[in-house]
Amino acid sequence: MDSNKSFNEKCYSLLMQIPRGKVVTYADIAHQLGGKAYQAVGNAMASNPTPIVVPCHRVVNSNGAIGKFALGTAKKIALLKEEGILINEDKDHAKIVNLNKQRHTF
DNA sequence: ATGTTGACATGTA
DNA sequence: GTACATGCCAACA
After folding, report:
1. pLDDT score at A4
2. Which stretches of A1-106 are DSSP H helices?
3. Residue A2 resides in a domain
4. Has residue A43 been placed in a domain?
5. Distance in angstroms: CA A12, C1' B12
6. Is A68's CB less than 7 Å from nucleic acid strand C?
7. Catalytic residue status for A11
8. CB < 7 A to strand C: residues 14-33, chain A
9. How confident is the model at residue A85, as a pLDDT?
10. Helix, strand, or coil here: A88?
């Protein structure tokens, strides 16, 4: 049966709950969905029909890394910085600073 | 740190 | 409809 909201819609709902200046990990989202579909979540983001509207750029890896982004990792970093997220720019090793502190809790 | 295994949605054959 | 491959990953050895 097709659920009311597709998997991708659920992910977007959670994403839109994230206030500016906060970030979440794929594991957190997957956990909120009641499973461990980390990559499924990421895939849903990749299929993101409305970027920016859905802050998919506020989602980072569990280890604090930026991960990838449909519009480009650099774009993601730039957006996060613009949003006020502190990122450790080390050459090409961009990582979230104090992830646990900037991590948003649902 | 590296490699392998695990879990889930989507697309293609 | 079943099977295989891929993907903005994570946990474990």
Report:
1. 65
2. 7-15, 26-32, 38-46, 73-83, 99-102
3. no
4. yes
5. 26
6. yes
7. no
8. 25-27
9. 95
10. strand
Per annotation, catalytic residue among A14, A41, A56, A80 = A56
Q: Is residue A71 domain-resident?
A: yes
Q: Is residue A40 in a domain?
A: yes
Residue A17, domain extent: 7-102
pLDDT value of position A59:
96
The pair of three-digit structure tokens given for residue A42, joined into one six-digit string: 């990421």
Q: Is the CB of A102 under 7 A from strand C?
A: no
* Nucleic strand B near CB of residue A13 (< 7 Å): no
* Residue A51: CATH number of its domain: 1.10.10.10
Contacts of A30 (CB under 8 A, 6+ apart): A36, A37, A38, A40, A41
Residues of chain A below pLDDT 70: 1-4
Residue A7: predicted pLDDT: 82
Q: State the pLDDT at residue A2.
A: 53
By C1' distance from the Cα of A30, the closest nucleotide is: B8
Domain count, chain A: 1
